[in-house]
Write a sequence for this structure.
């Protein structure tokens, strides 16, 4: 029988997990997370769970709304560029927007980071973005998990996921059930790809065009990295005031699947949202991707948000008032369509 006794002493660190690095990362994270705390947070980081005591006294029948998501292959850009402080903000904003469509206001957020080798400086950058996104959205970062998993992830790579909980009064839940024929669709602009379509975008930019992250794209006026790493917009500051003033019939966050794939989720049976593709300006990044990759229009609209990151469906009577409310110097909105009778829930014209 072969002697399998190791010749040198083994340790967790030699096996691939550095506990000391984990402790250093936690110490850096604590200050960033604490910056998001409010009086409803009862414990700091370090406990086995995060304690949050919500103030829901103004809600007659509170309903908690939760969601989870990831940044997807946009992380590949973070690996390539070494810039890790924006994908956390991307993640928070994505999750905030997902529950916002139901009228929910975000309460608290948790994250999960699985990484090949724990580097405290990288973790700190990731959590810096998470903290910044949470502070802007008024959300408490109450906890999370960081796991060093060298057997699962490639060197210098990681995965990032988020979990959010919000609350809405039951009578004010928005689910599209009140959408009616004649309603107007109002689109809020995106600032780029947000967090979807990156597998195709990377194929076009790096394989077809042969560009590198630092290359300047003439049509765009900025580098590939700056173009593709733009932070996913958070629509909560725009939507919250509208919820207090208007009867919103439905809302959709335009993520994977584009306008057709997401707007159809809230359109009732027998109705169709007719969207005019020429009712908002086409962002240069999408023109560049379509031309460079020789992509058909229908494929573009299924893979990307095409310049519209969020859609509100309202009555025709409220549409003008909402458009007036949204007419601010640094804010734009477009009447992009209306609801008609039909079997095709979303129709691009």
């Amino acid at each position: 029988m072969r002697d399998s006794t190791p010749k040198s002493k083994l340790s967790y660190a030699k096996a691939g997990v550095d506990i000391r690095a984990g402790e250093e990362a936690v110490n850096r994270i604590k200050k960033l997370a604490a910056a998001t705390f409010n009086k409803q947070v009862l414990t700091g980081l370090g406990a086995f769970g995060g304690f949050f005591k919500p103030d829901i006294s103004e809600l007659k029948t509170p309903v908690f709304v939760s969601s989870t998501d990831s940044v997807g292959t946009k992380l590949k850009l973070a690996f390539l560029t070494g810039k890790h402080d924006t994908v956390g903000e991307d993640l928070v904003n994505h999750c905030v927007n997902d529950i916002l469509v139901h009228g929910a206001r975000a309460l608290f957020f948790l994250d999960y980071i699985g990484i090949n080798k724990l580097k405290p400086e990288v973790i700190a950058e990731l959590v810096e973005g998470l903290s910044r996104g949470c502070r802007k959205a008024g959300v408490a970062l109450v906890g999370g998990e960081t796991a060093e998993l060298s057997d699962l992830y490639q060197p210098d790579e990681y995965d990032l996921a988020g979990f959010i909980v919000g609350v809405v009064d039951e009578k004010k839940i928005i689910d599209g059930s009140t959408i009616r024929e004649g309603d107007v669709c109002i689109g809020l602009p995106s600032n780029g790809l947000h967090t979807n379509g990156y597998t195709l975008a990377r194929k076009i930019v790096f394989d077809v065009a042969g560009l590198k992250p630092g290359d300047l794209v003439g049509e765009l006026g900025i580098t590939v990295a700056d173009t593709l790493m733009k932070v996913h917009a958070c629509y909560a500051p725009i939507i919250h005031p509208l919820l207090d003033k208007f009867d919103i019939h439905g809302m959709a966050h335009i993520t994977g699947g584009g306008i057709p794939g997401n707007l159809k989720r809230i359109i009732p049976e027998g109705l169709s949202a007719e969207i005019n593709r020429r009712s908002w300006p086409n962002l240069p990044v999408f023109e560049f991707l379509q031309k460079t990759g020789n992509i058909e229009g229908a494929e573009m609209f299924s893979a990307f948000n095409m310049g519209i990151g969020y859609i509100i469906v309202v009555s025709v009577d409220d549409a003008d008032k909402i458009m007036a409310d949204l007419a601010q110097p640094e804010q734009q909105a477009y009447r992009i369509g209306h609801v008609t009778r039909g079997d095709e829930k979303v129709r691009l014209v």
